[in-house]
Write a structure and sequence with these properties.
CATH architecture: Alpha-Beta Complex
Distance between the termini: 29 Å
Helix content: 40-55%
Low-confidence stretches: none
Oligomer: single chain
CATH topology: Spore Coat Polysaccharide Biosynthesis Protein SpsA, Chain A
CATH superfamily: Spore Coat Polysaccharide Biosynthesis Protein SpsA, Chain A
Strand content: 15-25%
Number of strands: 7
Number of helices: 9
Mean pLDDT: 91
Length: about 240
Amino acid sequence: MNLTIFFPCLNDGGTIASMVLLAAKTARPIVADFEILVIDDGSTDHALDILNELKALVPELKVVQHDRNRGYGAALRSGFQNARGDLIFYTDGDAQYDPSELPLLLKALTPDVDLVNGWKTVRHDPLHRIVIGRVYHWIVKLAFGLRLRDTDCDFRLIRKVALKKISLTSDTGVICVELIKKLQDSGARFREVPVTHLHRVYGQSQFFNYPRLFHVGIALARLWWILVVKRAHRSAME
């Protein structure tokens, strides 16, 4: 088994080093062949400087740098495209999820499962983000027919063979809906496990904030039209 661990990173200079170090410490005893990718999506803080110095301590680390901020979806697509592992695990670089819980996903990835998705037992966010998150969850669950209990939980282990059956296009955070919808429609088999969600200690959310809500709504409506009404992706899978 070879494994790719990757983190999308945008101005996560205060947390990305701990995420990489903890991921490496977690993976070494259980996976013989692994790599760690950080997709730096045009950070303007000290994240890139930290990552370049960290390479000396973590030989498995590789950094993919975007010349400008392209969006969360673009960062995920870069991670998937640059991953060499047969299994791909990703979570965000802001340290709201714990990389040491990766073994929970690996244990749940039995031969009949293509994707293991975490679900937050308790969401440690400000109240307004919790409310927005729940509303968002039910909107996408009902509008797109998603069967996951926590589509918004970016703590995922995916078989590369399943990813090869789909094509992702979103540049924004709605890529998570696109990813799950297309995998679900392709026949991928899911399993979910409870994971820990932590308080944010550095930076701020790039997705669930008031200024972005309108743009998120437009992006979701466009994605709904493409995936639910037009359903062009289904013909490509046949």
